[in-house]
Amino acid sequence: MNLMFADLLQNAEGRYLHPNELKSLHDYVEGIPKRVRIYQVLQSKESELLDRVIEKFQPMLPNLTRRHGVLAWERCRRDLSMVWRYCCMAMLLNDEDYLRDKLLYWLETILKSFKMRDECKPAYKLMLDSLPYVFGSEESEMIRPYLILAKTMLVS
After folding, report:
1. Domains present along the chain, CATH in parentheses
2. What is the C-alpha to C-alpha distance for residues 140 and 88, in angstroms, rounded to an integer?
3. Which of 148, 123, 154 is nearest to 59 (CA)?
4. Residue 119 pLDDT exceeds 90
5. 94: phi then psi, degrees, rounded to nearest 5
6. What number is the average pLDDT over the span 119-135?
7. Does the record carry Ribosomal protein as a key word (predicted)?
8. Residues 67, 68, 69, 74: is their CA dihedral positive or negative?
């Protein structure tokens, strides 16, 4: 649940919502249909996005399989897919904390411990750069802040 929304409900326990709280609640609820629609588009084109990213990323790391084993590109795609899906869910919930708490803190630790941050950096740039080629401007604008947050925490 969106943290702002959860806090609003908890703080209003035993009383009526103030007008500004009602407006925040109204704005959040009113945005749900748009976020659901965009979420569905983002979901339906995940493979197209990841295919494009991996296709452009592989030439940048020709020795990845030698250094990290035969499953390296499969793992890379799995990890990018996981980040994409959590970004999409965070967008749907309109909640960056969801993304941080459920995935990024954990994955950041993994990437640091395996010293993979520098190797992964181009992949997140490619994801951001690929948005306008795969999605319309509305979808790109809605997901971009979450991808930027992921890129910043994971590889910057």
Report:
1. 33-155 (1.10.490.20)
2. 11
3. 123
4. no
5. 55, 50
6. 95
7. no
8. negative
Return the structure tokens found at 140.
Answer: 């790109």
Asked if 36 contacts 59 with a C-beta cutoff of 8 angstroms, the reply is no
- Residue 93, number of CB atoms within 10 A of its CB: 19
Is the CB of residue 100 less than 8 Å from the CB of residue 149?
Answer: yes
- Mean local confidence (pLDDT), 27-35: 94
Place of tokens 């659901």: 36
Between CA 144 and CA 58 the distance in angstroms is 23
- The mean of the pLDDT values for the chain is 93
Model confidence pLDDT, tens digit, residues 75-106: 999 999 999 999 999 999 999 999 999 999 99
> Percent of the chain scored above 90 by pLDDT?
75
